[in-house]
Amino acid sequence: MMNGRFRAPTLTAARAWAVTHDLVVVGGALLVLLIAIIAHGIMAGPDLAELSTAGLTIAYPRGWLDDVAGKADALPVQHTYHPLDSPLVRLEVIIDKAAPGQGDVGFLLGTQRRATFGAIYYKESERASDDGWERCTFEYAYMATRDSAPIIEHAIELARVKGNRLFIVRLHAPSQDRLTDMADDLLPTLELK
Prior knowledge:
Blueprint: H1 11-44, E1 48-53, E2 56-61, E3 65-69, E4 77-82, E5 90-97, H2 105-117, E6 121-128, E7 134-142, E8 151-162, E9 165-173, H3 176-186, E10 191-192
Antiparallel strand pairs: 1-2, 2-10, 3-4, 4-5, 5-9, 6-7, 7-8, 8-9
């Protein structure tokens, strides 16, 4: 107040107040955006359960059906997980005794794949990883019944011998995109103790 009169704020003071409060609003908006991104990542990821058997641990989507072949305490044991609505999508876990001096696991499993999946079997790639798992990506023709038309299934197989046990993990899906999504979700959870 000057001489009993009220003096209006200057343009500089008004601009400083606006800038200060704009930064608060922008900061609040960025915080809300960050919280939304984190929440989306948590909620959008699959709800996973865990299979832990014979020293192998891997996650699978909760709600998938488990068809177990063999006894849990005796080898060989095979777990096959698949969703109720799509039996073509599945995760297989096979644990068996490794033959002494088994040699090249990749060659032996390749021979087994050709016998299991038949003449229409195509190996896309095969490589050994740094963590000891041999990885093979392949395609094969699949017929649900004798009368149905064959479809092309895509699969990823991981195999490893540890001690006297052979561990095989296979993912199957009718499309390469679905197989890639499954591999991104499930294979990082694969652990061998």
